Amino acid sequence: MTHLQPTPDGWEVKAQSASGTEHSLLARHVILACPAPAQARIVAPVDNEASEALHGIPYGPVVVVCTAWSKGSWSIDPEGFGVLLARNEAQRIGGIDGVLGMLFTSSIFPDHTHSDEVLIRTILGGSIAPEIFEASDQELIARARRAAAICLGPERKPPNMIRVYRHPAGIPQYRVGHPARVATVRAAETRHPGLYFIGNHLEGIGVKDCARAGLEVATKITARHPSDPLSPPMPVERSP
Ligand SMILES: Cc1cc2nc3c(=O)[nH]c(=O)nc-3n(C[C@H](O)[C@H](O)[C@H](O)COP(=O)(O)OP(=O)(O)OC[C@H]3O[C@@H](n4cnc5c(N)ncnc54)[C@H](O)[C@@H]3O)c2cc1C
Fold first, then answer.
1. Where in the chain is the domain with CATH 3.50.50.60?
2. Which pLDDT tens digit goes with each residue over 15-61?
3. Among residues 2, 63, 151, 225, which is most buried (max CB within 10 A)?
4. DSSP structure string for the chain
5. pLDDT per residue over 175-194, tens digit each?
6. Which atom of ligand 1 lies at the shortest distance from residue 214's CA?
7. How much is the pLDDT for 92?
């Protein structure tokens, strides 16, 4: 989505597909569920106050090291959800600075791999260790392997697969003043009926918070407009 403009009956929304094709549609309700910087850009011509508030929400960089192992690669095979490290804990242990935690992906999602394989997702960085983003892949992988060995025992076999994913704007930060920024965004919803903002940068970072916010907006719209189905949208115009 690239542009948003009020019309007498609602909103005109413009979007561009990956191939560059432009789409335009008219809608009575628009729910912006993209990250704060995108919401700030889209809403700038409509509500400068909301745009400024959204621009004021910073994001911490996150690196995810995904590894696949054969079972028996340590003295203990990982079971359960994973491990989260308290602030400064990684520094205290030593050699794993910047590690925020590990998700035992193969036990959370058993169908993601074979029964004789183990998947681990190690998360590093965030606002408490943003410098980790500059580390080399080799260094990040070494820290992820050390963290696994600390929890599960010395490594007996190397991983079968390693991938490193870097997210420069990974996790939104609820800094001092966040409630005021959220209040400004909510006030914009009151000024512009039919426009809604949700996403992990507003009132809850977890997947369940995001799902709840989506459900709340859908419930609000259907309660206010019981005869107004959420879909399909009004006629779509396409330009080549
Ligand atoms: C490494 C990591 C691990 C995490 N682990 C957990 C966990 O274990 N449990 C948990 O509960 N939470 C976890 N979280 C947090 C949670 O996953 C996210 O906060 C949540 O999924 C974000 O949902 P969202 O809908 O706000 O944003 P997203 O899922 O990021 O969706 C935003 C969407 O907007 C789209 N978009 C961007 N710009 C535009 C535009 N201009 N127009 C239209 N669309 C646009 C994007 O393509 C994207 O699809 C984790 C987060 C990270 C980074």
1. 3-57+173-238
2. 999 999 999 999 999 999 999 999 999 999 999 999 999 999 999 99
3. 63
4. --EEEEETTEEEEEEE-TTS-EEEEEES-EEE-S-HHHHHHHHTTT-HHHHHHHHT--EEEEEEEEEEEETTSSSS---SSEEEPPTTHHHHH-S-TTEEEEE-HHHHSGGGS-TTEEEEEEEEETTT-GGGGGS-HHHHHHHHHHHHHHHH-S-SS--SEEEEEEEEEEEE---TTHHHHHHHHHHHHHHSTTEEE-STTTS--SHHHHHHHHHHHHHHHHHH-TTS-S-SPSPEEE--
5. 999 999 999 999 999 999 99
6. 25
7. 83
Please give the CATH superfamily to which domain 59-171 belongs: Protoporphyrinogen oxidase, mitochondrial; domain 2 (3.90.660.20)
What is the tens place of the pLDDT at every residue in 76-111?
999 999 999 887 887 788 889 899 999 999 999 999
Residue 66 Cβ inside 6 Å of ligand 1? The answer reads no
**Ligand 1 atom 37: the closest Cα is on which residue?**
34
Q: Residue 18: CB within 6 Å of ligand 1?
A: no
Residues of the chain with CATH 3.90.660.20: 59-171
CA 165 / ligand 1 centre spacing (Å)? 15
pLDDT value, residue 86: 85
Contact 34 CB / ligand 1 (< 6 Å): yes
pLDDT at 236: 45
With a cut of 80, say whether residue 237 has pLDDT above it: no
- Closest residue to atom 30 of ligand 1, CA basis: 35
Is residue 17 within 6 Å of ligand 1 at its C-beta?
A: no
ipTM of the complex: 0.95
